[in-house]
Amino acid sequence: MKLVAKGALLLLAIALTANGTETSDRENLTAAAIKPFVSRHELAGAVTLLVSKDKVERFETAGFADLASGRQMQPDTVFWMASSSKPFLAAAIMMLVDQGKLRLDDPVEHYLPNYNPRFEVLSPDGRHVILRKPAHPPTIRNLLTHTGGTSLLATFEHWKIDSLPLSAKVDAFSLEPLDYEPDTKWSYSNEGFETAARIIEVVSGTSFDDFMHRRLFNPLGMMDTGYLPTQAQEARLAKGYKPNTAGTDFEEVRIFLLQYPLANNPKRFASSSGGGLFSTGPDLARFCRMLLNHGVLDGRRYLSESAIQEMTRDQVRSDLLENGKLPGDTGWDNYGLGWGMIGRTFEHEGAYGTDIKIDPDRGIALIWLVQTPDPAGASRAGRHAFEGLTQNIELPRK
User: Fold this and answer.
1) One-character DSSP codes across 176-201
2) Cα separation of 134 and 337, whole Å?
3) Cα–Cα distance, 182 to 195 (Å, whole number)
4) How many whole angstroms separate alpha carbon 148 and alpha carbon 363?
5) In tens digits, what is the pLDDT along the chain, a chain of 398 residues?
6) What distance lies between CA 79 and its chain's CA centroid?
7) Backbone dihedral region of 198: left (phi > 0), alpha (psi from -120 to 50 degrees) or beta?
8) 25, 204, 299, 304 — which has fewest CB within 10 A?
9) Nearest one of 83, 61, 74 to 233, comparing CA atoms
10) CA pseudo-torsion sign 376, 382, 383, 389
């Protein structure tokens, strides 16, 4: 879909409003942050939140969720979280750790007997490739820290992460060789997180989707969060946009890893645990407030303090880093359990630009919600602009 230039001009005007009310750039941090990117046809709109342990301190919207229909970003706009899903899976694993039902350093094969992967090495004569057993089998900790030798995506998935149930998917994973020996490299892997989700199913005796709703989403009041959105939620989904070739307008892009339609599709499975979550700003704020309150929200404990400390500490050995940072363009110094680490701050970005960042020193969380398949470009730059503007906000001290 291509839009005429006058539509972009209308978008620029709407980008300077929040929730339909005209306001100044100083008052609306979101509009101020994305204004340059909207004018260059790089971002269509955004929803942002600044959250403390007690409440949502700032909640702003700007721009369009659907350019063709003129639907603006709203507080209840739904976003595909992509890899920003990973902290939720890590939290679920730590719930089971808290219960004593599993340990992070247990081998995966302890819970999944069929999971016994090998890795490829060259034969002594240099003419053949052979499969060799790793020095130690992948552990749950390896899965959650991207150090288990598992691939980004399995070849049989064909870039669709919701096409098989977890049980079938993980059985197939075990037939593919590891990319490297566990604990010898850091390499980003959705496959590892989906294997961890299958362990949740085996240990809990219920489906991964049911566990997440029953133990985390529903108790927290995250009623718009899940892996299989309803038709009503899909109708509120922010559409993805990228600049057209000429850079003069936007083109709509679908979620490339998932099958359409997203709702009521018998071919879709809630098995995309590392990147298939859908959510809204208010729901994500509930999760962040729980973490800021050391595992407690509204008098209910979800995670122990020790579990949160384990999730948010550096887990990757220094010899696996490159110049003091993780390999690639993540910008992370290290990796926790489902969280990228930047000093003491922990965060996770998604492939369509979503980001959740928690700063324990300031006692705040910043939630940045956009939908663009360029997270390292306009989305990240816009987010950094928004984060910079929040530095001037003084929260009430108690």
Assistant:
1) SPBSS-TTS-----HHHHHHHHHHHH
2) 22
3) 15
4) 32
5) 444 333 443 343 333 333 333 334 446 899 999 999 988 889 999 999 999 999 999 999 999 999 999 999 999 999 999 999 999 999 999 999 999 999 999 999 999 999 988 876 666 766 767 778 888 999 999 999 999 999 998 888 878 999 999 999 999 998 888 999 999 999 999 999 999 999 999 999 999 999 999 999 999 999 999 999 999 999 999 999 999 988 889 999 999 999 999 999 999 999 999 999 999 999 999 999 999 999 999 999 999 999 999 999 999 999 999 999 999 888 999 999 999 999 999 999 999 999 999 999 999 999 999 999 987 789 999 999 999 999 888 776 65
6) 11
7) alpha
8) 299
9) 74
10) positive
- The DSSP secondary structure of 279-346, one letter per residue, reads E-HHHHHHHHHHHHTTTEETTEE-S-HHHHHHHTS--S-GGGSBTTB-SSS---SEE-SS-EEETTEE
CA distance 180 to 164: 25
37, 381 contact by CB (below 8 A): yes
Query: Which amino acid belongs to residue 29?
Result: L
Residue 385 and residue 393: Cα distance in Å, rounded? 14
**Residue 45 contacts residue 63 (beta carbons within 8 Å):** yes
End-to-end CA distance of the chain: 50
Nearest to 365 by CA among 277, 279, 276, 287: 287
Distance CA 258, CA 272 (A): 9
Could you give the 3-state DSSP secondary structure of residue 122? strand
How far is residue 30 from each of residues 45, 246, 252, 350, 388, measured CA to CA in Å?
Answer: 9, 26, 22, 19, 11
Q: How far is CA 312 from the centre of its chain?
A: 15
Domain extent listing, the chain? 5-80+238-253+284-390
Phi and psi at residue 337, to the nearest 5°: -110, 95
Report the distance separating Cα 320 and Cα 170, nearest Å. 26
Amino acid present at 241: Y
Residue 358, strand partner residues: 346, 365
User: Quick check: 177 and 118 in contact, CB under 8 A?
Assistant: yes
The CA R_g of the chain, rounded to the nearest whole Å, is 21
Q: How far apart are CA 168 and CA 273, in angstroms?
A: 14
